[in-house]
Model the fold of this input.
Amino acid sequence: MTLSRKINPLLLLAFTALAFVVMGYHPGLEDDGLYLSAVKSQLNPVLYPHDASFFRTQMQATVFDVWMAGFVRLTHLSLSWAELLWQLLSIATILFCCWRIARLLFNDQRAHWAGVAMVAAMLTLPVAGTALNVADQHLHPRNLATALILLAVWRVLAGKRWQAVLLLVLAFFFHPIMAAMGISFCFFLTIALLDPAPRWLGKVSGAHPTLRSSQPALVPLSWIFDPPNPIWRSTLLPRPYLQLYRWEWYEWLGALAPLFLFWLLWRFALKRGESLLARFALAVFAYGLFHQALAMVMQGVPSLIRLTPLQPMRYLHLIYIFMPLIGGCLIGQYLLKTSVWRWALFLLAINVSMFAVQRDMFSASQHLELPGRSPSNPWLQAFAWIRQNTPTDAYFALGPRYLAAPEEDFHGFRALAERSQLADDIKDGAIVGMVPDLGETWQRQVQAQQGWTSFQLADFERLKAQFGVDWVLIPYPPVRGLDCRWHNDSLTVCRIP
Done:
């Protein structure tokens, strides 16, 4: 075994650890409030007797919850440690694939590792106006699907297309929408690698008939095509990331500029005789142009409004992985070279800046919320007490916008407290944007909590009479008349008499 073969695995492990530290780890954060609740429901079906519909309907699109629960039962690991393990494996696989792709596209080893370093630092890079990051700070089926899609891209570049097909099918079971984007890109990449590459590929300006007709087949859920209702439409208004024509100019720039950059890379690589890099850049450009046109049609034709939950602009997710990968490779090859000082400044700049952004975003929480650590966040302290000291069938109200409360940092109550809650306006509202059938239930519960900050005992008693809510998590000190069992400096947990 050569020295490089011994060093390469160590470098991959080092960049995986660095990426994990830079991006942070926050179980139960944002979308994980949905997925983690679903996994816990699989492991303990008595949980969430009042509100499981707010995550179970969307789980029809993925095997993630069943698979994760099965892994926990098989290995006898705790769920918290199992999720941490798979988060690290996802990051490691993403970086491994980036390294493999870079090795095929560039001859210089310095370029390979500069590309990996750039991706490792940029895992929390926002993807234009899509409300996505390259990877999430918690285990998400999108992280797993991304790893599988990148494995498929590597295998296509290596000429092993049937292996890519199997990997894409597996990705589809975890995240159908992202897998559909991966399938599309691998199609364009396969065409670009033909010898000679078809001339039409460089002139893509609209939806290819075959791909256009296959789009509905990529959607496994019939509720995507349910007719819209006024409540469903109202959930789109506060979520401009779902509506392309409400994007700001800089979000449009974030969508279109990468396409132009890959077009430039295609021309640059052609002039230098770097055939594989040129074909890869052409595939990215054609894929992006096709999906941009498709998204503009899907979001511009009123009769197609129910396709909004497919979020066609998510095609940018793959491009925002390839952009730092190729950019890092070019920096390594033409700028960093063998200079130790340049490498040191490069690594310091990209990692410290991204770390600082994450610390600022989740300033009230520990940067690495690892299993077994006592939380410093007052909301997480309350969630932990509730999980350990209230009945399994307890039904909580926290207010319709608790996720946006100071110091809450968008941690999901259901996932971390393991108790049912009255619907919230933010995350549950996003679910209604995909599943209109939940609209009436959601609207009734959210409207019943209007004026939450000035609620008195009579208001809480009204919630109990109307919905069966018997517990509340409210600011400390509490209003008079509630049976309060626990508090910290910010919050108190009370039972409604």
Remarks:
- Residues 44 and 69 are 10 Å apart (CA to CA).
- The mean pLDDT is 88.
- The chain has 20 helices and five strands.
- The chain has two domains: 3-30+77-337, 378-495.
